[in-house]
Design a protein that fits this description.
alpha+beta; single chain; 7-stranded mixed β-sheet
Length: 154
């Protein structure tokens, strides 16, 4: 497995990975209606490209397959942090985070922060993030609870 920048040719695979992870991995924490509101189907390339615009993205690649990705937006905001369901617990998220953290330091960010699902909260806590506040987001008329979490860059 190696980490590399996310590029145009990765759009379809990362959109599919995002959708499948939301649908499979978060099932213990979110209802079917909530998961469908979050990601009903993989986004088409143009919509996904627009969602990722202005972010630095990194993918974890194992052979020809992308097994995870993470993005860094303005002000140290981690927008997407997803690992394929068959590869969770293998250090991929931590390896992606290490790359995001390096990029944030290079950008001069003083902290990293994210809006984190119930499912991802323990992962972010393991990286030293603290809960700033609980939050309720609305997607397609459905409410989803998540957490704003942050960590200073030391």
């Amino acid at each position: 497995m190696h980490i590399r920048p996310l590029v145009e040719r990765d759009l379809a695979e990362t959109a599919r990975l995002f959708h499948e992870t939301v649908q499979r991995v978060t099932a213990a924490d979110y209802t079917k209606a909530q998961r469908n509101a979050w990601s009903l189907a993989p986004l088409d390339r143009d919509v996904w490209r627009a969602r990722l615009k202005g972010q630095q993205g990194f993918v974890a690649q194992d052979g020809d397959a992308i097994v995870g990705f993470m993005t860094l937006g303005e002000g140290g905001y981690i927008d997407f942090a997803f690992v394929h369901h068959d590869h969770i617990g293998k250090g991929i998220g931590k390896a992606l985070f290490a790359q995001v953290e390096r990029a944030a330091r290079q950008n001069g960010d003083g902290r990293l922060w994210a809006m984190v699902s119930h499912t991802a909260k323990p992962f972010f806590q393991s990286l030293g993030f603290d809960v700033v506040r609980a939050n309720t987001a609305e997607r397609r008329g459905v409410q989803l609870e998540n957490f704003e979490m942050a960590r200073p860059l030391r």
